[in-house]
Amino acid sequence: MNTNRYELTYIVPTKYAEDELGGVIAQVRELVAKHGGKVTFEDNLGKKRLAYPIKQATIGYYLMAHFDLDPANLKALNRDLRLSSDVLRHLVAKRSEVVHKVAPAPVTTAATQATQEVRKQEEQSQAKLADLDRKLDELLTKDII
User: Fold this and answer.
1) Ramachandran quadrant class, 46 (left: phi over 0; alpha: psi -120 to 50; beta: rest)
2) What is the pLDDT of residues 124-143, one digit of tens each?
3) Residues 6+ apart with CB under 8 A from 55
4) 63: exposed, middle or buried (C-beta count within 10 Å: 0-12, 13-18, 19+)?
5) pLDDT tens, 107-126?
6) What is the 3-state composition of the chain as percent helix, strand, coil, each rounded to the nearest 5?
7) What is the strand order of the sheet 4-13 is part of?
8) Residue 144 pLDDT > 70, yes or no?
9) 69, 96, 99, 106: which is deepest, by most CB within 10 A?
10) CATH class of the 4-94 domain in this structure
């Protein structure tokens, strides 16, 4: 049996509470299994605002699943996902086998950004005070001589 690795991203409407998503996730898992696939990974990406309303929904839960499936069955799976009333939109993409190692990006939160900004302002004010002290010393030494 020839299988490919796929990634499924789908949106569930917020008519379900977050603890009720398990039923929809199980339904999608069953659809994949019905077509001969096997889910290898699942993740809840959280609740997000949609770019535009879909079936009168403006907010949805974004969910992701990785699965292995025979390419001949992909069209039928897409059809069943499109017909599901619990899935607003879905996207299936073929996953590549190449693993890219990416260095983690430095984490900058609003608090660290604010701290960095305060430090910059303090350094600037200290530089201004040092310039002011130097000028005062020059003026005072000129008056004495």
Assistant:
1) left
2) 777 777 787 788 777 777 76
3) 13, 88
4) buried
5) 667 777 777 888 888 887 77
6) 45, 30, 25
7) 38-54, 57-69, 4-13, 89-94
8) no
9) 69
10) alpha beta
